[in-house]
Structures are given as C-alpha cells and as structure tokens.
Amino acid sequence: MLKSSLFRKAWIAWVALLIGLVVSVFASLQVKQGIEQERARRFVFVCDQVTHKIQDRLNAYALILRSAVALFAASKAVEREEWQAFVVNLQAGQSVPGTQGFGFSQVIPADRLAAHITRVRAEGFPDYTVYPPGKRTLYTPVVYLEPFRDRNLRAFGYDMYTEPVRRAAMQQACDTGEAALSGKVKLVQETETEVQAGTLM
C-alpha cells in the first residue's frame, strides 16, 4: 500500500511537472509570437511612415515643377532673370531640402541648334555650347539652372536626352504629362573626387 501511495504521489508530481512544462513552453511561444507580431507591426508602421514622407517630398518636388510649367505657360518667353527670380522666390531650399538645383532644359530641333547657340552666346556666355557633341534630330540642353554658380555651371548646355536614364524620365514625362523621377544618375555637376549619385525629376 505504501508503495502504491508513493508511486501515486510520484506519478502526480510527474504529471504536474509535465503540465507545468507544457504550459511554460506554450506561454513562452505565445509571448515570443506576440513580440514578433509587435515587431512586425512596428516595422510596417515605420515603413509606412517613411513611404509617406518620401511621397510627400516627391509631391512637393512635382508641385514645384507644375509651378514652373505655369510660369512658362503664363509668359511669352521666360528670360534667364525671370527664371532666377522664380527659383529664388520658391524658397525651395527651406521647404524641400535636398535639391542641388532647379533647371530648365529646352527642346531644340537640329536645324535650329546653331541659332540657339548664337543666341545664348549673345546673352553673355561666349563659350556656351551644347554637349556632348554629335548629330541628333533634337537637342535638350540645360539653358537655365539655379543657383547658377559653382558646380551647377558644369550642367549649362548639357543635353540630358543623350543619357539613357535621363531620356527615359524625360520621355515618360512627355508621354504622361506628369512629373517623372529618373533612375540613379551621376549628376553632371559632380567632380571625379566628390561623386554623388542623384535623381532628376
């Protein structure tokens, strides 16, 4: 009888221990799953926040481009000084940081390229040329760029349509009538020692 009583108590103790272990493992798994779900929720939340911030920034850039379109639509011919005043009054450096410059690229048919170069040189830029050189059916040189100093001067006259990534964004913008963001490009403004990748819109 004593043996059976001890066996019974041992059996109950083992069952209680086993139940305790099962409950502990189950509780640990639930806690771990809860922590993982919370991390996943936080990750999704942070990703959504970052996505919204990026989208807001891109929308701000697109709004600036729409303002530039409105400037050209409202004027018979936007002159260099008007473009400069437009960019200065945007105060975009404070409202949408991260921009290196605001430019205007003009579409020039091949038969009007020589006249275009002559006109820009007569504006006080005797060394102006459209580059890279070569015969094309049309040219899209950067004719206005603000701020018009320092590194940005390197982009003056650059035909953006000659570079495939830039051309794809320009073509998309022409086809859709909406702002288009280019893929990653090496900005013309960069030097060999201070290379930064960028995008154009």
Automatic annotation (TrEMBL):
Which keywords does this chain's UniProt record carry? Membrane, Transmembrane, Transmembrane helix
Gene Ontology cellular-component terms for this entry are: membrane
The UniProt transmembrane annotation reads none
The signal peptide annotation in the UniProt record is: none
- Where does it reside? Membrane
Q: Which InterPro entries match?
A: CHASE_dom, CHASE_sf
Q: Name one GO molecular function term.
A: catalytic activity
GO annotation (BP), single: signal transduction
A Pfam family hit:
CHASE
- For the CHASE domain, which residue ranges apply? 139-201
Q: Which SMART domains match?
A: CHASE (SM01079)
Q: What is this protein called?
A: Diguanylate cyclase
